[in-house]
Design goal:
This protein has eight helices and no strands. α1 packs across α2 and α1 packs parallel to α3. The protein is globular, with a radius of gyration of 19 Å. The protein has two domains: 71 residues, Rna Polymerase Sigma Factor, Chain: A (Orthogonal Bundle); 105 residues, Orthogonal Bundle (Arc Repressor Mutant, subunit A). The chain starts with 10 loop residues before the first helix and ends in a 5-residue tail after the last helix. Helix content is 62%, strand content 0%.
């Protein structure tokens, strides 16, 4: 197997848009997403001599971006508490934590739904509508595939709190999708 050669002069053209979209889903702020992508490119330029060529250029760059994004979350986590009793988190829940209105059964083909661009647009809108802490935890768990233990350590929460956050985030997403996508079908 031949060693992969880096082509830094082509990084922006090849990967910038993809890296920006990847980051924007995670941080919800266009300016922060741009800064993180730029920071990843800069870090890659500084460390390009240590690139071992064991992965593709794209995989290596996204690995750097993922670390920059996690650093961003670590640095900003002190501004985000995970308070499950806050009023904003109970949008679709009563005082005892039970759902006010239960989501319905969709009866749709998951493969067809996965290819639906309108669904993707509405899902992005619904994700951005989640409270910040729900959004971060959901993205780390369901999109980035981070382990429950890592998330609990990152946010200094107990596994039961993680389960409640994920449960509420999923239900809020489902209700949002039912309102903004299924009713338009």
């Amino acid at each position: 197997m031949s060693k992969v050669t880096l082509e830094p002069q082509k990084w922006v053209e090849r990967y910038a848009d993809m890296m920006y979209r990847y980051t924007l889903v995670r941080v919800k702020d266009p300016e922060v997403a741009e800064e993180l992508v730029q920071s990843a490119f800069f870090a890659a330029l500084k460390s390009q001599n240590s690139f071992a060529g064991k992965s593709s250029e794209k995989t290596w760059l996204f690995g750097i971006l993922k670390h920059k994004t996690m650093d961003h979350f670590r640095n900003s986590k002190k501004n985000i508490s995970v308070d499950l009793t806050a009023e904003e988190n109970l949008i679709h829940f009563d005082a005892s934590g039970h759902m006010v209105s239960k989501p319905g059964n969709w009866n749709i083909n998951p493969e067809e739904a996965a290819e639906n661009s309108e669904l993707a647009r509405v899902l992005a809108k619904c994700l951005n509508g989640l409270p910040e802490k729900f959004h971060r935890v959901f993205v780390l768990k369901e999109i980035d595939g981070m382990s429950s233990e890592e998330i609990c350590n990152e946010f200094d929460i107990k596994p039961t709190n993680l389960w409640v956050i994920l449960h509420r985030a999923r239900n809020q997403l489902k209700l949002c999708l039912e309102t903004n996508w299924l009713k338009t079908k």
